Amino acid sequence: MPYSDPEKRRAYGRDWMRRNADKARAAMQRWRERHPDAHRAENARYYARNAERLNERIADYHRANPAVVRAKSQKHRALRLTADGAFTSQEWKDLIRAYDDRCAYCGGEAPLEPDHRVALSRGGSNRIENILPACHRCNARKHRMSESEFRGRLVAERDHPPRPG
User: 124: closest CA among 155, 145, 153, 152?
Assistant: First the structure.
């Protein structure tokens, strides 16, 4: 041990880690793999000590990156339903841009959410090719319909609007 004084030893260790970042990172990774329970407990203690600050940081990230959060929640939903495929937040952003930040069905500019052309519950995939940007109203109205079924419904409603009262 280079130093018997704990403060000097800590300073030496920090300096060594700065100079040998790759070695230190690899050593930490090995330790985490060999001690998963201790690592999990250490993370839990850290979270307990800093819960308020971490929750605020997570909330800030979610507010600043709604497209990323939406893509992530869709991925988790698709995994629960064992749907094939996944799309990235970048693919989702590109798709929104391709539709000029408008709903694929009504053309509205409301906040958009991923809609599956063929619903996951009807065996549709979670690949970007099966996704359209839709406002919440259209997505909720479409429910389990396919894209063609829903577009047919929209045309029928436009041609024969419901009578008031």
Answer: 145
In terms of pTM, does the model score above 0.85?
no
pLDDT tens, residue by residue, 29-40: 999 999 999 999
Asked if residue 92 lies in contact with residue 112, where contact means CB atoms within 8 angstroms, the answer is no
Nearest-angstrom CA–CA distance, 68 and 90: 8
CATH entry, 69-159, from 3.40.50.300, 1.10.260.40, 1.10.1740.10, 1.10.30.50? 1.10.30.50
Distances (CA, A) of 132 to 55, 91, 97, 121: 31, 11, 11, 16
The two three-digit tokens of residue 77, written as one number: 């939903």
At residue 135, the 3 state secondary structure works out as strand
The torsion angles phi and psi of 96, rounded to 5 degrees, stand at: -60, -45
